[in-house]
Amino acid sequence: MKYIQKSVEPNSLSIWKIKQGDKIPTWKSFGRTVIKGQLLETLLKEQGYICCYCGVAIDKGSCHVEHFKPQGIDETVRFDYFNLIVSCQGEDDTQPRVPVHCGHKKNNWYNEKLLVSPLIANCVDFFKYSAAGEILPTEESSKKLPAETTIENLSLNIPKLQRMLQAAIDAELELLGNDDFNEEEIRNIIKDYLELDDEGKHKPFCTTIVYILESYYL
Ligand SMILES: [Zn+2]
What we know:
This protein is mainly α. A two-stranded antiparallel sheet has the order 1-2. Strands 3-4 form a two-stranded antiparallel sheet. Zinc ion (ZN) binds next to strand 2.
């Protein structure tokens, strides 16, 4: 999970919201507006085109706007820009792709104390990873239960995601090969993983790779 630093609400969304007055349109009707497409583009850019929960690469066709606090339990957050992020597995939440994970798996589950939010700066500290691609809760007592519960309720440790994480880890380790990188070189590689590339994208699973590099190479 990578921290998502929210920017400012796009003007087009602010103006659209003012036009709606007191009524809260349905998400389905919003989906037919041009504003929805623009919003999606802004959110994808904000996140560097990776899923808010698992870190897989996403684009306009393979993601959905995720309400961190579900609109199903509180419709007032439906168009709150600071509640909107982007998750993997496409738009369709009635027939999501299987195995279901991340936003579609979370669905209407929400627990302020037990759901780790990618909108808090230290979200990365809740999780650790094995070289085999498992996501695990940290041992730190105040963070362990939220981490465990989040992994469980979002199905973040399913074999599919483990396999993808392991492939990403293996690819990086293969690049490092047997060369003897010094600490400064490893730190530069880590820095590279934390920054956006020239197309404004993050590398998929970047926080996992950074964790592995920091744990085993520094
Ligand atoms: Zn995901």
